[in-house]
Write a structure and sequence with these properties.
Blueprint: E1 10-15, H1 20-30, E2 34-35, E3 48-52, E4 55-61, E5 73-75, H2 79-88, E6 93-94, E7 102-108, E8 114-120
Length: about 120
């Protein structure tokens, strides 16, 4: 018997308390994600939810802690366009080690979360 995973449902990223509007500006403005305001129920712990393709991105305030390498990885259709958008908004790009059959890089959002973007080549 095994767990049969179907897909990634959501990712939770943390922001410092009081940074909710900055999070909306970055995720809704810079990244262009649609905020999910009409869920039919109150969002837990003051979370902010965004639609990201067929998954959800959940943002919640927590006390800051040391940066880590923990991160979500999101597949994108055009990595070069994503890089251009981020760089135009002053976001530093980190070129990650190469992996066959994909292009990728990572960046930190304004709250220190590491995010990886991947474009599949095969």
């Amino acid at each position: 018997m095994k767990i049969e995973f179907e897909r990634l449902n959501h990712i939770l990223l943390c922001i410092p308390p009081g940074a909710e509007e900055a999070a909306r500006a970055f995720y809704g403005g810079v990244l262009g994600l649609k905020e999910l305001r009409e869920t039919g129920y109150p969002l837990p712990n003051g979370a902010i939810w965004f639609a990201m393709g067929d998954i959800e991105l959940h943002i919640r305030a927590e006390e800051p802690s040391e940066q880590s390498q923990r991160h979500p990885a999101f597949e994108v259709k055009n990595l070069d366009a994503a890089r251009e958008i981020l760089e135009k908004n002053g976001i530093a790009i980190r070129q990650d080690s190469p992996i066959p059959d994909r292009k990728r890089f990572s960046f930190r959002d304004p709250f220190g979360n590491r995010i990886e973007l991947i474009e599949m080549l095969a």
